Amino acid sequence: MADRTAPNCHLRLEWVYGYRGHQCRNNLYYTAAKEIVYFVAGVGVVYNTREHKQKFYLGHNDDIISLALHPERVLVATGQVGKEPYICVWDSYTVQTVSILKDVHTHGIACLAFDLEGQCLVSVGLDSKNTICVWDWRRGKVLAAAPGHTDRIFDISWDLYQPSKLVSCGVKHIKFWSLCGNALTPKRGVFGKTGDLQTILCLACAKDEVTYSGALNGDIYVWKGINLMRTVQGAHGSGIFSMNVCEEGFATGGRDGCVRLWDLNFKPITVIDLRETDQGYKGLSVRSVCWRGDHILVGTQDSEIFEVVVHDRTKPFLIMQGHCEGELWALAVHPTKPLAMTGSDDRSVRIWSLIDHALIARCNMEEPIRCAAVSTDGIHLALGMKDGSFTVLRVRDMTEVVHIKDRKEAIHELKYSPDGAHLAVGSNDNSVDIYGVVQRYKKVGECIGSNSFITHMDWSTDSKCLQINDGSGRRLFYRMPSGKEVTNREELKLVQWASWTCVLGPEVNGIWPKYSDINDINSVDANFNNQVLVTADDYGLVKLLRYPCVKKGAKFKKYLGHSAHITNARWSHDYQWVITIGGADHSVFQWKFVPERKSKEAMHIAPQETLADSNSEESDSDQSDVPEMDSEIEQETQHTYLRQVYKEDLPQLKEQCKEKHRAIAMKKKERAPGSGVKLHFIHGYRGYDCRSNLFYTQTGEIVYHVAAIGVVYNRQQNTQRFYMGHDDDILSLAIHPLKDFVATGQVGRDSSIHIWDTETLKPISVLRGFHQLGVCALDFSADGKRLASVGLDENHTIVLWDWRKGEKLSAMRGSKDKIFVVKINPYLPDKLITAGVKHMKFWHKAGGGLIGRKGNMGKTETMMCAVYGWSEEMVFSGTCTGDICIWRDMFLMKTVKAHDGPVFSVHALEKGFVTGGKDGIVALWDDTFERCLKTYAIKRAVLAPGSKGLLLEDNPSIRAISLGHGHILVGTKNGEILEVDKSGPITLLVQGHMEGEVWGLATHPHLPLCATVSDDKTLRIWDLSPSHCMLAVRKLRKGGRCCCFSPDGKALAVGLNDGSFLIVNADTLEDLVSFHHRKDVISDIRFSPGTGKYLAVASGDTFVDIYNVMNSKRVGVCKGCLNYITHLDWDKRGKLLQVNTGAKEQFFFEAPRGKRQTIPSTEVEKIDWSTWTCVLGTSVEGIWPLINEVTEVTAACLSNDRKVLATGDDLGYVKLFRYPVKGKYAKFKRYVAHSTHVTNVRWTHDDSLLVTVGGGDTCLMIWAHEPEGHREFKQCDSEESDIESEDDGGYDSDVTRENEINYTIKALSTNMRPMTGVKPHLQLKEPSVDERPAVSRALPQPEKLQTNNVGKKKRPIEDLVLELVFGYRGNDCRNNVHYLNEGADIIYHTASVGIVLNLTTSCQSFYAEHSDDILCLTINQHPKFPNVVATGQVILVTCQPRLHLYMCGTP
C-alpha cells in the first residue's frame, strides 16, 4: 500500500523577486539595522542589501496592502485584505509576530501609522465607511473607532507635535481628527479660495499645526489648523503618491517619475528625475519614498526598488525588480543551468539567476505571454502568447528565431520533446499542434479530440507519446509526432514519462481533496529522484506530497506566501529549488528544497518557517494511520448542543406575540400562588460529555455542575448549595488557583461564562459576546488573573480574558476539529496549549491574537487531556489510545502506555501526576511518568459503607480527577462522584442517571421516596429524606419513559420504550409480571385509585390498554385517539380516564372496558380527579405560554391540597400556578434550573417537596415547598416572573406618553436633520463645493473666519455669538438640573446646549459641542472632580451615540 503520510522533506522560502508597487503607497522603509522592509503578495520582506539576503515574515494569509514602521524602526505593522483582515505587528530582526490586531475591520486595511511614542497605532479599513481605528497595539485593544469618510482614504498620519491629533486624506477631502476619551472627532479641512477641492494622496505633519499634503494635480497644499494656507504649485508634473518626513526635511515622489527633496520649511533642495537616469524609462511612476541620511529608497509602480545616494543622484542603483501589474502565468526552468524564465501579461519575458537571486535578462514582446518552455539543449526559449501565436527566442541574446500564429485563442501550454526534435503547442482552441524544431518549426502534426482547452502536457522519455489534460477533466494520449490518439490502455502501461506536470492520472489522484473542482489545482511538478510532488492551487498554497500519490486526500505539507492563485510551480534542473509564480500578485518565489536527512538539522535554524510549514489540517483522507476513534469520543464529537429556541430569543418572541393578546392583557388575572419552591437537592453530575469539571473548594466542599446549575456540595452534612446564574446547560468548569472562585461556561447562541464565588454564590464577572453555541473548555492562569475559554463554533475560537475587567485580551480560531482542553502555562501566562481531535497545539499571545503551532507527533492522535509539568516547556497529554505523550516545547519526546482505552483526565501534583481513563482505573505516577506508583480500581467491592448510592458497574469510565484533603475525587461518565481514600476505600457521594433522557418519575403514595426510569435502561429508587441517596437500582432490557407506584406503595409499574411494561416489587425491584402488547413506546402508566385494581397503560401507537392487576389480564382498550398519548389521569372512583394526545386533544374513556365518553367542559371541572397531570382543559388553560408555537408544556402535577399546579416545559422552566388556572396566560412563579426540557414534575404525598426530572440534563431535582407567609429565601429562588401581561393598573398617563416617545422618528424624519437651508429663489444653481458653508454647531471661532476674508473686497462676515437661551427641557427628561460651585450656579440643558446660569448675575455660559438634542445630564459628586459634567445626546441610527464629559469652569 502506498504511503499516505506527508513527506518528511520540506521547503524553505529562500528568495522573493518583486515588490508591490501597484495600488499601494508608502510601503518601503529603512529599518534601524539599515535593512529594507517592504512586502510582496502575502509576505513581509526584510532585505539586507549589503549581504544580499532576505528574511520573511509569514504571519498573513492574504495580500498585504499597507505597512508602517515603528518610530524606533525595529517593529513593523502590516495590514492585509480579506473577509476578516487583521494587522500584524512584527519584529524586523527576528521576523516573529509581536501582536495581532483583529475583529474590527472588514474587506482590508488600507493605511497604518504609529504615533510618535510608538504606543498607539491607527488603521483605516476598506469597508464602506472607511473606518478609522486607534489601537493600543501591544494589548491588541481598540482605544477608539469612528467612520472615516464616505470615500476612499489614501493616507493617515499622527501629528508628531500634538499628541492625540491625527490627519487623514483621500478622495476630495482632508480631515483633522482629535482623539478624546474613546471618541475620534473629525473636522474637515477648509479649502476656501486658496486651492481647488481635490483628491489628496499623501500627507506629512510639521510643527505649529502645519500639515503638508500632496494632491492629485501635482501641487502641494500647506494647511494651518484646518484651513488651507498656501499651495506649492507644480511641485510635481502629476499626482504626488508619497511623502516622507525625516530629520533633514521632506521627500516627495510622484507619477511623473521624480523625487523631490525639501527642507524643513518646505523650500526645494533638489529634484531627482528617475526617468532620465540609465535605468529609467518612459512611464516610470514613483509610489513610495524613504529618505534616511544620504540614502533615498524609491519604490515604483512597476515593482522596482531604486536606492539613490544623494551626492551621486544621477546614478541610482536598481536593487529589486519584478513583473509589472498583470497576471503572471508563464514559467520555465533551464535544463542545465540554475535559471528560471518567466513571462507575464505585462508583455515582458525575464530570466532570473537562482544562484545570484537577480534578474539577468529582460525582453519586451508585442503580446501578453501565457506559457514558456526551454529546449532540451537550453538554446531556444519558446513563448506562448495570449493571441494564439508563439515566438521562439535564442536564450543567449534574446533575439527572435521564429514567430508563428496558427491559432486564435491563447496558447496555455507548450513543451519540447526530450530528444529536442519537436515542440508541442496546446491552445485554448482545444487542440495541440506539433512543430519540427530542425525544420525551422514547421507544423508536422495535430492532436484533436479534446472538447475543452488544453491545460497540461507531458512527453514520454522516448519522445513517442504525449499525454494531455484538458479543462473538462479529461486525460488523452497521442502518438508522436503524427498526433494520432492512443486508445489502447495496455500500451500505455509501459510508457515512462519524462516529466509529470499533469494534474490528472492515477499517480496524482491524492493531490485532490475529496470534494473539489477540477480546476482549482493549477500546476503540478514531480521530483522523481526524491519521490515528491509539488502542487500550486487557487488558494495560494504550495503543497508537498509523496509521489506517486494514488489515494484521494493524501497528507501534505503546505506553505503560505502567495496570496491568491498560484499559476505555476516547477523544480529547478537539479531539484535544489522549487520556483512558484503568483497570478494576481505577479511575484516569483524561490523555495529551497530540504531533503529528509537535512530536515532534522534545519529544525533548529529557521524559527520562522514553522509558521508556514504545517502538517495539513485539511487533509481529509480516511487514513490508515489514524487509529479507530473510541466510541465514547466519537459520540461526544457529534454532540451539537444546538437549540431550536435559545432563552435569549424569548423577549423577542414575546414581543411578536404581544399584538395577539392585547385584548387578553386587559383582563384581570388571578395572581400567582402564594407559596413557592426552593431548590433543595440535585441527583446528578454531568460526566458523559465533559471532563475535569469537579474540584475541592478552599473550605473542602466539592464543586461541580449539572444541567444549568453550579453545585457546591458539603460531604459532611450531605447538603448542596447552588449557583443559579446560568440559563442553559453548563459544559465546562474551572477553579481559580485559590480555590474560592469558579468559572462556568454554558450553551447558548451568545454563550456566557460566569465567574462566581463558591461561598457567597454571587457572580463576580460575566463574560459574553465572543462564543457561539457553547463554551467547551476553560482554564485559569496560575496567578488567577487570566482565563482562557474555547467555544463550540465551527472554528472552536479560543479567547484569553482579563476576567475581572471583562475584557478580551486575545482571540483566535482554534481548530476545525473539536477542542477538549485548554491550559494556560503556569510559568508564562502568555503561552497556552489546546488539545483535541487529531491535534495538539502550542499557542502564544501576540497582542489581540494568538499564534499557534501544531505539535510534531508524526502520526495524528486525538488528545483528550493535557497538563503542564514541572518546567515551562514540559507538557503531558493523554491520548485516545491510552498513551501519555511527553512534550518538550512542541516536540514529542516519548510516549508511555498508561491506560487501556482513552486517558480522559490527567492532574499534576507537586511531585508526580494522577491519571484516569475509560478503563475505570486511577493511577498515581512519579514526576517523569517512568513509574506507576499506585493504581485504584473503581469497583463495587471496595465501596465504603457511608456511600450515598450504588455503583452501577465496575470500572466506570473516569472523566474527572481532582486531589485535595487527603483524597482523590473522581467523576465518572455514569454521573457518579466518588471519593477515593489514599488507603483504598471508595465513598460514593453523588449520583444521577447516565446519558439518555429521563422521563419516568413517580412519587411514593405515603413515604418520602420516588422512582425514576430513563433511556439509560435503569430503574432507580431515591430517598427524598435528608439522607438523599439512591436506595436501589435495576438494569432493564430497554429504556423506559414512565413509571407509577400502586396505591399501597408495594408494586411499581414501569413502561418501556419497546411497547412492553413490567410490574415489579417496589422494595426489591424483582419482576412480578410483564406484558408486551404494543410496538411503540409506553408513554404513561397509571394504577387506578383505591385498591389499585386496574392499570391503565398508554402507548405511542394511540391506544390506552386497561389491565386487571388482580388476574393479570387485559380487560379493555381505549380507541379513537388520532395521535400518540401523552398524559393519563383517573378519577377518584376509578371509573373514568382522562387522556391527552400529542395533537392537543382531550379524551375521556370509561373503565374498565374503555368506552369513549363525551363530557362538556363545565362537567369536567365538577369531576373529582384522583390526580391531575394533564396539560389540557379549561381548568389549566392559563398554563400555556404566549409563545406556545415553539414551546410545549410537557408535564403538570396538581398538589394534593389542590391549590398549586406545577408545570414543566420545553425551555427548562418549572412554573407554579394557582389552581384552577382559568383564563389565558395566567401569572406564575418561574424557576430556572433544568437546562432544556423538563420532562416530568410530581409532588410528594404530603406536598412538602416537588420533584422534577430534566430530559437531556439527566438529573433529578428536589425542591422544598415553602408555604405562604414563609419569607422566601431569595438567593436561591430563581427569577420570579409575574408579568406576562402589562401589570394590572397599567401606567400613569405621563409615563405612558414618555415611554412611547421615539427620538429617531422625531429627530430624524429624513435620514439626517437638515442643518442648513437655501431659500427657494436661490435653489436653481447648485452651490459649488467651495461656497458651501462648513456645518458646525460648535461655537465658531471668529478670528479664523476673518482671516479667510482678508484681502477680499467684500465686507467681513459678522459672527454670531450665542448670548441667551430661553427654555429648559423638562417634558421628557428628569434629574437634569443641578447646583454647581456651592450653589452659586445651576446647570441644565435645552436643545443641544448645556447651560450654566449664574444665579447672582443671571449670566449664561454654554457648552455647545453636541450635534443634536441632549436628553440626559449628570454631575460628578466626587470631591476630586468638581464641576465635571456628563451629557448624552440623540444621534442618527447609523452612528454611535455620543457622551460628552467636560469641566464646567470651561464650558
Overview of the structural elements:
The chain is mainly β. It contains ten helices and 110 strands. The strands form 27 sheets. The chain has a six-stranded antiparallel β-sheet with strand order 59-60-61-62-63-64, with no helix packed on it. The protein has a five-stranded antiparallel β-sheet with strand order 46-47-48-49-53. The longest helix has 9 residues, at 650-658. The radius of gyration is 39 Å and the shape is globular. The N and C termini lie far apart (82 Å). Residues 599-627, 1272-1290, 1305-1316 and 1319-1353 have low confidence and may be disordered.
List keywords for this structure.
4% helix; 10 helices; mainly beta; five-stranded antiparallel sheet; single chain; 110 strands; 1451 residues
